[in-house]
Amino acid sequence: MNPAQSTPAQNEPADNHSSVIDAVRTLLTSARKVLLTTHRNPDGDAMGSALGLSWLLRSQGLQTVVVVPTPVPANLLWMPGADDVVVYEEGKAVVTNDIDLVCVLDLNAVSRLAALGEELISSGRPIVNIDHHTHPEDFARLQWIDTSAAATAAMIVTLSRGLWPMTAEAATCLYAGILTDTGGFRFPRTTSALLRDVADLVDAGADPVRIYDEIYNQSSFGRTRLLGKALSTMELHAGGTICTMIVTQADLQHNGCSVDDTDGFVSNTLALEGVRVGILFVEIPGYSKTSFRSKGTMYVRDLAAEYGGGGHNYAAGARIPTTSFTETVQSVIKRAVEYVGDAG
Fold it and tell me: Could you give the number of structural domains in the chain?
């Protein structure tokens, strides 16, 4: 990378990144058509930041297309613009001659784009990466990484300030992204500055009641029964400081659910008194989709990294290859007990 393409220091606050933010703005506004994308199994922040930025760019006359490696989860299909999102089909090119720029949001590794990432890299189109995860790979022409940000959607609010008027559609998407990545404004980094940004989004047209209802109050009967089954598997370890929860393939099939329906289940593990680390194991063919959560002074990002995963200090995950789901669960629990003991 040359100096114009450098990545900012990973732990500096966004206010110290003004030159990088200006560079991102310049690249985006000089393009004619931008392809925006985010990680597989997109969550609220992934879709909120991609769709929110898409609406802002469109309001300024730019053309955009949002492409995702895997389908948009059912609880996010209500978001403005979700109907127009393109789901990538391997072997079917999405980068055409009229794409000037690729903007990757809410991910720190090309592998999280699956096969789509290979096409984007090989296309030769300039890539901008906007993200708040730690340990980013160096794959973009320009990277704006702010690990102090509560959500990538919050970074898009910063990006737009003083440049683009906030539209109601963009505000709705960005509010949803911030809401989900802050756990309903209860996770660390829910600051007064963030809440002021959120107030501005409400003023611009985001409806807090409707957004919460669409994301959290539209569970199917099968998903609710699945949650009940998952709660019944809860076990405590390490003197009650670790809580685990398990969902098997049989559980998913019996309730007519997919792995996407387990999104958010892991947060229940931290509701118990004394628990510092919560782990959800979901059995999928050949893998354990393992979600780690923590609170207080306990971080789980490094624990997830031991299994090839990553994420945030308090919220991380890993897809762990397995030939025996039961043995993998037992092995990870054993390591988590050691990890908590080492951390003290």
Answer: 2
